Amino acid sequence: MTQLDQSSKPSTDPDQLHDQFNEVWGNPRGWRALTIVNHTTIGLRFLVTGAVFFLIGGLMAMLIRTQLALPGYVLMEPEVYNQVFTMHGSVMMFLFAVPMMEGLAVYLIPKMIGARDLIFPRLSSLGYFCYLFGGIILLSSVFLGVAPKAGWFMYTPLSSSAHMPGVNSDFWLLGITFVEISAVSAGVELVVSILRTRTNGMALHKMPLYAWYILVMALMIVFGFPPLILGSILLELERAAGLPFFDASKGGDPVLWQHLFWLFGHPEVYIIFLPGAGIVSTLLPVFCQRPLVGYRWVVLGVLTTGFLSFGLWVHHMFTVGIPALALGFFSAASMLVAIPTGVQIFAWIATLWLGKPVYHVPMLWLVGFLIVFVCGGLTGVMVALVPFDWQVHDTHFIVAHMHYVLVGGMFFPLMAGLYYWLPHFSGRMPSVRLGRWGFWLVFIGFNTTFLIMHWTGLIGMPRRVYTYDTGLGWDLPNLISSIGSFIMAIGIGTILLDIVLHFRFGQPAKTNPWNADTLEWATSLPPSPYNFVSLPDITDRHPLWNDPDLPHSIARAEHSLKAIDHGRRETWGSDPLSGKVREVIHLPGNSWWPFVASVFLAVLCLSLLNKFYWVALIATVATLIVLFRWSWENGAHPAAAPDAQTQPGEPPLHSRTFDGPGLWGMGVTLLANGTLYLSLLFGWFYLWTVSPEWMVPEHSDLNGWLMLASAVLLTIGTMWMRLVPGRLRRGSGGQLMLNLGAITAIGAVQWAMLLWLLLTANLKVTETAHDAVVFVILAYGLIHCGLATILTLLQTLRVMYGYVGDKAPYEVVVVEQLWYYNLGVIWSAYAAIVLFPNAWGGA
Q1: Could you read off the pLDDT of 205-230 as tens digits, one per residue?
Q2: What element of type H or E holds 584?
Q3: pLDDT digits over 314-363, tens only?
Q4: How far apart, in whole angstroms, are the C-alpha atoms of residue 42 and residue 413?
Q5: Would the pLDDT of 699 be above 80?
Q6: What 3-state DSSP class applies to 835?
Q7: 358, 287 in Cβ contact below 8 A?
Q8: Where in the cell is it found (predicted)?
Q9: Buried b (16+ CB within 10 A) or exposed e, 546-585
């Protein structure tokens, strides 16, 4: 027995211990429910909200199919149809698919890896409210009659102010950006939680496959969503302030929007598919009652899919005039990604072949997934062939292909997972009869709708048309597709009825009702807010098959980390590779700060929509104040860790180490931030080399020497900042406050130099794309250098209050990362906007 085990012998009555845990972890009711940060509640909120958005998007789909059922039929006028078409795609892609999969992961991941919560609970809460408010803002445009109508991809120049002068496109740009912030925050949360909070002994090679899929999905969100966020910001700046990033007459290029959009858009297909595939890899072993064939091959396939997905974005741009060499490269890459996907499919088929599958309702959805997704994958390989893509591009063949991939790859596994985990949500079993009826109606209706749509596209029917003439051969196929859509809608209604009735009439579920192998079934049904009263050690990939009594021994507090008399919310902090416990992570409790911050962000979004820029400025300042106040209750603050002592034999609290979760959170956040910045540099060099009307000012007032001096000063501050953690490690942090104060002063001077550079550059930001991009690059550096200076100042104050020092050193290391990041930003910006133009011979 290890020292960790010896310190965890039961010493209190289990019932009394559960009551004590509920006092610390319990969720409040009434208005105070807005303060809940627990991952179980937040995950369920994501799922319920995503389901509501799905129903709204489905209603829009029914309006589209009704409009197209008969030739010449006019249910909606062209403008209304364009709004409905745009909103259907936007709602399904941005408000349903990704948030739904993220919500399920937020709910499941801590339970699967043996943790009590996600690592940044308040970030989860902020992400949910940003998602909710962003979705409400976007959907409100429908009721106001000003919904976006340029397509869910918002191609320029159609979405630019010259062609779309109202606020229609602004609702999309601001609302979607709001939602994307939520997605990225969830991505950061999931990456760090999976890597750093697994229970003792859960090494990477013992991790559930679902956790592998979610880890790759979250990393893809971190790298894939920032290009769209950047594109949305640039397009909104063009519409609101006239900065011509996509205006070809002023040196911009509308195709740049397509690059930024699809740098996000094609990885998003796999961001949606991978969690669905993770559900398949989780459920198949349960219903076949044997481990999945080829665990390591599947993990390698998932990693390869995530990597290759970032090299396919031009797959969607074959018809815009791409050079032949690029066409060949991206066509080959588009077909290459079928290999790791095929590895996973063969692993699933082999598991079915070698096991004894039991066809419960979740299993029906898995078989439906295999059929539908394989068909979608085959048509995907077809459109990867450039000549074929040229023929079917912008026809209903593409509509059918997208639905087979997205609905087959995401919706069918999601429904399998929903029926599988329903007992976890409610403690009751779903109805078998209604579940089977719902599956068959959806399966038949879906294939009736979209299978024939391939033929409709092959005979020439374009997408995004609100009506068509008779005699073109499209009449009967469209009628059949519309009938199929209503059959599918009836199936969705049956499933909803089943879910509603099961909460009232479902049979109570026993412990581990499916005889599953993963840890989420070791909790109570439904789970308590803290998941596990004690955290078990893990020795293999199938803990519940290895020890069927594990749910009961966990509840009897026979494992580790069961002390709660200190009043802290705790979970293990483990090594990213081996899963061995390294520290005790103390988690924040319920808080108003995430909700208040999201409200101010919503005010900022609404004021920008209405062009109340002074209100937007006030809302920005208020948001920053709230976020800085939120950050104050962290680390060694009494509200974060009222008692710094741990039990004998346990490792120290994370805030007393140099490797706390904040270090990892900052690192992953900077990866996302760096992706956005690299996308900005990509746009800069793209316009230099491609834009047909690129204009470089003959005389630039940009002071390159001042920028060089600013970069040198930032280098000095960063090197000084580097010395501080070293002194803390040696236990000689006596001059910490003085050092941080001096570094803050250097940062303030460097920021002032950068601000002066921007103010005196005399950039004509509305006349040339060149100056507009230079302005954004400098503003980006200015914002980040200012943020680093403020955070260093806060660290100085926290040293004065005793929250940072020799005994609580890790926050300084977190801020140090931002200084290093800013150093890379400023020097690369200097190279891009000062050195590169001179070398090119333009400035």
Answers
A1: 999 999 999 999 999 999 999 999 99
A2: strand 581-587
A3: 988 999 988 888 899 999 988 999 999 999 999 999 999 999 999 999 99
A4: 21
A5: no
A6: helix
A7: yes
A8: Cell membrane
A9: ebeebbeebbbbbbbbbbbebebbbbbbbbeebbbbbbbb
> What burial letters (b/e) apply to 35-54, b meaning 16+ CB within 10 Å?
bbbbbbbbbbbbbebbbebb
Q: Which of 649, 517, 574 is nearest to 193 (CA)?
A: 574
| CA–CA–CA angle 752, 776, 627 (5° rounding) | 65
Per the structure block, which two tokens stand in for 821?
Answer: 């990041």
Output the six-digit token pair for 179: 């939602």
User: 781 with 825: CB under 8 angstroms?
Assistant: yes
CA-nearest of 572, 826, 533 to 708 is: 826
pLDDT digits (tens, 9 = 90+) for 179-206: 999 999 999 999 999 999 999 999 999 9
Do 499 and 422 touch, CB atoms closer than 8 A?
Answer: yes
> 514: closest CA among 357, 298, 348, 299?
357
Angle (nearest 5°) at CA 273 between 269 and 277: 165
Query: Cα(56)–Cα(44) distance, rounded to whole angstroms?
Result: 19
pTM: predicted TM-score of the whole model, two decimal places: 0.95
Query: Closest by alpha carbon to 758, among 774, 747, 743?
Result: 774
Question: Is the separation of the CB atoms in 510 and 517 below 8 Å?
Answer: no
Residue at token pair 């590895």: 343
Tokens of 230: 């950047």
Q: How far is CA 581 from CA 557, 560, 572, 837, in A?
A: 18, 11, 6, 52
Cα 340 from Cα 307, distance rounded (Å): 11
Other beta carbons within 10 angstroms of residue 732's beta carbon come to: 11
Angle between helices 661-690 and 769-801 (to 10 degrees): 170
Return the axis-axis angle of helices 338-354 and 324-336, rounded to nearest 10°: 10
